[in-house]
Design brief:
The chain is of the alpha/beta class. Helices cover 40% and strands 18% of the residues. It has an 8-stranded parallel sheet with strand order 7-6-5-4-3-2-1-8. Helix 5 links the parallel strand 4 and strand 5. The chain is globular and about 50 Å long. The model has no long low-confidence stretch (mean pLDDT 96).
């Protein structure tokens, strides 16, 4: 199957209220263009250097999402154009993004990453740390950052019950934060969870955004 055919199959399985982020990391610009030519406009990259190179080489109406672990010293390279940063895992990083947003005279949309998996290799706030952040700091005081929701990655396992439980925990945490601190803003609405192997489970558990790569572009 071509990229266009795979993309069409995946779109059929995703409801209208869920945004598809086509994860193009490590894939050549030619494959990205194939997806672009059949209407895909949102793409995700996990390395800053590759994101910058692709943004320069490809059409300017693409919305680029930074989905990988974000190092604070590299924010400046993507701050002028990035559409959404998924992996914000510290207040320090949030403040750096705010500073770079001010420097570029724009508001940068972000998701706060929550560690919901059992693997220690994954990044993110623990649920307790995230609640403490909202209790102790007003994230809305940062004028050049907009915290739009949460992001999480489930454990890489065949145990679907475990995956569903992890996704469910992120949804519950999102609802708590929304109700306690963000109920009066419409932009706090995104739950980014689910990848090629588990995005259907994420949809069942209430995600608004899925990050699908290998199911579109093939194995790297």
């Amino acid at each position: 199957m071509s990229v266009a055919e795979k993309l069409e199959e995946i779109r059929k399985s995703i409801p209208d209220h869920v945004e598809l982020v086509a994860v193009s990391k490590t894939h050549p610009t030619g494959l990205v263009r194939e997806a672009y030519e059949v209407g895909q406009r949102v793409f995700g990259e996990n390395k800053v250097q590759e994101l910058v190179a692709k943004a320069e080489a490809l059409p300017k109406d693409i919305k680029w999402h930074m989905i990988g672990h974000m190092q604070s010293n590299k924010v400046k390279y993507i701050a002028p154009f990035v559409s959404l940063i998924h992996g914000v895992d510290s207040l320090k990083l949030l403040k750096v993004i705010n500073n770079e947003g001010a420097r570029n005279k724009r508001i940068i949309s972000c998701l706060l990453q929550v560690h919901i998996a059992t693997e220690s290799t994954k990044f993110g706030f623990s649920p307790e740390e995230l609640l403490h952040l909202f209790e102790s700091f007003n994230v809305r005081s940062l004028e050049n950052v907009q915290v739009c929701g949460l992001m999480g990655m489930a454990t890489f396992t065949d145990n679907q019950t475990q995956i569903k439980n992890e996704f469910h925990s992120l949804r519950v945490l999102f609802d708590r934060i929304k109700n306690q601190w963000m109920s009066d803003v419409d932009y706090f609405r995104e739950i980014s969870m689910g990848m090629s192997n588990d995005y259907l489970l994420a949809i069942e558990e209430g995600c608004t955004m899925v990050r699908v790569g290998s199911a579109i572009f093939g194995a790297r």
